[in-house]
Amino acid sequence: MALRSIKYQEDYRSGYNNLVEEFFRPSLREASSYWRAVGYFSSTALESFGSPLGEFVMNGGKIRLVTSVELTETDLKAISEGASKETVCAQRLQQIVEEDFTDGMGTGVARLSRLLELGRLEIRIAVPKHGSGIYHEKIGLFFDNDGEYVAFSGSSNESRSAFEQNRECIDVFTAWESPIRAERKRSHFEQVWAGTDIGVEVYSFPEAARQRLLQAYHARAQTGTPRPRSDKWRHQEEALRIFLSSERGVLNMATGTGKTRTALKITKALFDAGDIDNVIVAMDGTDLLDQWYNELLSTRRQLGRSPHVYRDYEAHKELQEFSLSTRERILLVSRRGDERRDPLASALRQLDRRSARRTLLIHDEVHRLGSPGTRQRLTGLSDEVRFRLGLSATPDREYDEEGNAFIEEHIGPVLMSFELSDAIERGILAPFNYHPLPYELTQQDRERMRDVYKRQAARAAAGNPMRDEEVWIELAKVHKTSPAKLPVFDEFIASHQELLERCIIFVETQEYGRQVLSIVHKYRPDFHTYFTAQNSSTLSRFARGDLQCLITCHRLSEGIDIQSLNTVILFSSARARLETIQRIGRCLRSDPANPQKIANVVDFVRDSDGEAQNSDQERADWLAEMAALRHKETPA
């Protein structure tokens, strides 16, 4: 084996050269060691290397790899507040291994696993000491048994797409023709590998992630066939296929089953096919928009073209920049508009016919789209948009046919349903125990209900009758704020104090919430309220575990992912099933740290009071039915 036998060029450029055929494969054939420091590594690179990689291994070749783990804003926040950066990196890498390396075990992943198993591949993870970026250097060296080596650097990442599709260039420095430059590259790598480089911190490849990867490889080897992404997630691939065929419609997917990830898969497929240049993602609620933004930052490069992400909600006003951009672009925008400023409507109006045909419009929590104000502002504005995707765990607006009709007209029909029961039985969501607490209305409650009927009669007499929905809302508010629930709750929680750990309590009003708070205060000190005007740092403290119990009105009903949440307590439950599904979904998310998790739902059920069956009792029957479900498939 002799690297000197290869006639190296000073540089290799894709379009003029085939980087794999002309540089990497010949070097592997002659090398005994391969060192690589690169910002992004994918096992697909091992597919591109082909048979020379086998020869390299057969000849005793070993690889040293320094690569990066791209940390999310949540990761960085945890680190800044005292968490070990090594621990956070290990957790992030574990997630990457589980989500990417077990997804259709290709030959690249199998080779990567085999190299790890044979002890021929040593991986270290580099993280910048400062800032929020990733380690993004790209240098490499090949060594042979004669003591010669070749160094190279340049734009190429270590992945199949970089080698075979991207426009890349690398510069080459041989030890016999460019000894000073080659030695500088070698010294640089050795400093990074040893952890003495002043700009990065370096950690060993976490053993847990390594073992998880080998388990995935052996599972495939035993069956002899590639294993698809953990079977329990197969609904995501089904949703992808259905949407790409239909181009318009709603995916009804239970909370925690990967709506956002499925939407990103659809986005990537459309970018890869060259069908879109623009993506507009619209929803209500700052917390959910921020969550989407963080997810996009951590996965953007996987979309193929690294589109720029713009935001227009709250303090972010980037609609104009989005409109003026000429590159692939994504806009995160709030659906909440008014007569003075409606960024979503403005964004849709600014799309000419050609741009609209090359746009993917995503409405998350699409049931919100059917509200009267939103219908008025957005009617007709998406007619030219070719790809329209709605996401929701509860796309149907009960008791609102006009809203449902608008959603179907604006987005399309429901294309696929993956319900709460499906997710529990498949092992995606945690099963739960149901605790129904019966209560009776007080005399004061009955007087408040009579007041509602009096107002209804007065309005009818005045020629301005109340709509049925108005009456239901007023009566429901009486039930939701009944003081009769408070002593029932106090007595129950006194003997079930553990349910207040990792718990969210949903109430109807802030005033009622303060009454609940006074009860919670008797049993634990680490609680807080989270109402409309409060800063979202409270939610961050709860997610970290600084707070164990959160009392809130509406803001946590949708989209927020806190896997360690154990209990939801429903002082406030709507007549429609939609809100209940959203709220209990907060505690049903699986927790990797607690694989045997069984959640808890505490509910208040009003006595029938002579009725055949009231709405509380209907909900209780349904929740009891859901609580009886357990996993039918073993989670992979």
From TrEMBL:
Domain Helicase C-terminal: 488-636
Pfam families according to UniProt: Helicase_C (PF00271), PLDc_2 (PF13091), ResIII (PF04851)
GO MF annotation, one: DNA binding
Membrane as UniProt keyword: no
Domain (Helicase ATP-binding): residue spans on this chain: 240-413
Keywords linked to the UniProt accession: ATP-binding, Helicase, Hydrolase, Nucleotide-binding
Name of the featured protein: Helicase
The organism of origin for this protein: Streptomyces roseochromogenus subsp. oscitans DS 12.976
